[in-house]
Amino acid sequence: MPLDTATLSRDWIADPDVSQAIHADHVCRALVEGMHEVMSSRSITVKELATHLGMDENAVRAAIIDPLQQPLHVLVRMLTTLGLTLTTTQRT
């Protein structure tokens, strides 16, 4: 019996765990892009941000690379420092 890839793909996307992972990936990408844009436009270096936050440079780099792996208070503090805010929107 041939594999119906259209149905498989539709079922895969409908899986709540997969849907949640896709949403998390979109959120992560938006956070990373936002941080990069602000830091670039204001010429903020990782070292300057780390000093301002009282954090290690490697910790700041890790937070920029993968913000969703950070404790929420660290992420919010970084975003607030950069002038970024988290808002809720409807998922599409």
UniProtKB/TrEMBL annotation:
Protein name: Transcriptional regulator
Naturally occurring in which organism (per UniProt): Propioniciclava sinopodophylli
